[in-house]
Amino acid sequence: MPILKIIILAVIQGLAELLPVSSSAHVVVAEKLMGLDPSSPEMTLVLVMLHTGTMFAVIVYFWRQWMKAYFDSMENFKRFAVRVIAATLLTGIVGEAIIKVLEKTVFKGTPHAQIEDLFGHLEIVAPALLAAGILILIAGLAERKAVHRSVTEGPELSLGQASLIGFVQGLCLPFRGFSRSGATISAGMLAGVARGRAEAFSFALAVVLTPAVVGREALRLAHVHAEAGTNAVGMPVAMSLLGMVFAFLAGLLALKWLSQWLESGKWYLFGIYCLVASVVVFMLHQRGY
């Protein structure tokens, strides 16, 4: 794969991943326009490695906030750990259940079918973007009405609120276009969590989740090459590492912008963007992409 295409995908991923507009949808569309196959093992590995770059951007950006909120005492750390574990377990249970149902229904009778086979279908990406846009729009408009609610302060995240965020994250896993950050932050806001707290917890969950996703796609790629009797895994991994660096840099810029928009009460505009993007993606599907 040309290095230029990797860099383009990395910048798109880095800018979009940390904004609630679904980086996966943007990367899938970009891959389609560049003649790449989003469902191939090589491309799904590239995508999750780009996620890894943005994961490091999240760690750098939120480190001081996390240290202050979650690691300043053993009691706070234990409370945070319980909520992260509960949310992540729910994410895994819900996400894996949906994946298994889809693989046994949508792909019934298709040998070796996997959820990744759906990633290149823009007719699925479009409604996923639509659903994310509606959720973000509802949360944003509700937040604007609650003018008394603080941007960053408020009651600590409860176990129930954390579990809800984890549940919603599980719903996002199988679908490209259903923005993980957009859905989880919006769910937290609708559950009464201050925007800043919802943002920080949502990205903390992403850091926990990313290594498992990377491992899944690396094993998938290795399995495909083992079945084909080839050993050409090194090149996709090397290209992915290059893209990871660019995704990291773009991710830092996106995080700064996201926080500014959260603080200025413009969350609902991301919902409008997703609705418009849904229409654009559907039109591209109609044109044969």
Q: How many whole angstroms does the radius of gyration measure? A: 19 Å
The proportion of residues forming helix, as a percent range, comes to over 70%
Count of DSSP H/I helices: 10
- Report the sheet-strand fraction: under 5%
What is the oligomeric state here?
A: single chain
Transmembrane segments: 44-63, 84-102, 122-142, 235-255, 267-285
Function: Catalyzes the dephosphorylation of undecaprenyl diphosphate (UPP). Confers resistance to bacitracin.
EC number: 3.6.1.27
Catalytic activity: di-trans,octa-cis-undecaprenyl diphosphate + H2O = di-trans,octa-cis-undecaprenyl phosphate + phosphate + H(+)
3D structure, described in words:
By secondary structure, the protein is an all-alpha fold. The chain has one domain. Helix content is 76%, strand content 0%. It contains 10 helices and no strands. It has helices at 3-17, 23-33, 41-70, 74-105, 122-145, 159-172, 180-190, 195-228, 234-263, 267-286. α3 packs across α9 (234-263) and α7 runs antiparallel to α8. It is globular. The two termini are 20 Å apart. The model has no long low-confidence stretch (mean pLDDT 83). One of its GO terms (molecular function) is undecaprenyl-diphosphatase activity. Pfam families: BacA (PF02673). Catalyzes the dephosphorylation of undecaprenyl diphosphate (UPP). Confers resistance to bacitracin. This is Undecaprenyl-diphosphatase. It catalyses: di-trans,octa-cis-undecaprenyl diphosphate + H2O = di-trans,octa-cis-undecaprenyl phosphate + phosphate + H(+).
